[in-house]
Amino acid sequence: MPTTAAASTTSRCPARGAHILTRDARSAVYWFPRRGREGYEEASAVYACTRGHRAVPLREVLGYGDNAGPCTENGGCLRGNWRQTIALTGAMLAYETDSGEPTKYSICDCERWGITVVDLSTGRVVHRAPTGPHHGDVEPHGFPSDATPDHGDLYVGVGPAEQVVVEQNGSVAWIAWNFVSWLEAFRAGREHEPHSYELRVIDQAGEQLITSGPTLDPHALALHGSRLEYDMRSSTVLQ
Fold this sequence. Notes:
Layout: H1 4-11, E1 19-23, E2 27-35, E3 41-50, E4 56-57, H2 82-85, E5 86-89, E6 92-99, E7 109-119, E8 124-130, E9 135-136, E10 153-156, E11 161-166, E12 172-177, H3 179-187, E13 197-203, E14 206-213, E15 222-224, E16 227-231, E17 236-238
Parallel strand pairs: 7-10
Antiparallel strand pairs: 1-2, 2-3, 3-4, 5-6, 6-7, 7-8, 9-10, 11-12, 12-13, 13-14, 15-16, 16-17
């Protein structure tokens, strides 16, 4: 049987002294802020919790690129649009992950973009998937492959998520920028091709692509109960 102190620590959500990143009535995502040597706000780690259960560390939400969001003491940062890519509904947490993909090359363009859903009442990962089906290098048709270390690349997922929403049952939807298709166009000389986006859903029926294209608004995804709403810039669509 846990002691009173242990039970109190376990059930406190968020922990005392935490800085709240986002929360709803039951759950929260937070960190512990401190001041670095140059006076900038830093944090020891990022955690998520739901009332009555132990907190879960969220190491995957941190990246090491051009991020405009808060940064932790050990150097990882939240992406600038973290408010759109970390979603809480009850005990369900969904978030985008963005990390370098391991490679045998010392120099390469390598990236792994994914979506993870965690049940904070158990700590169990409900879903973990790339933002799209791409897994491999990127070469336009007719472009000669260069296997030298300077030109190796490897991408998992189609690109970074722009917005994520989640239901209490763990169903998740997200809009991702199709970076892979943009890169293919760029390397084929189509530098001015507009950005294209994909809306994908994982639910009881599995993963499915709902819609895609340059007219999909990457920041207009909304969940009303179990009804998904998105914007094709010229009209609002209900799913």
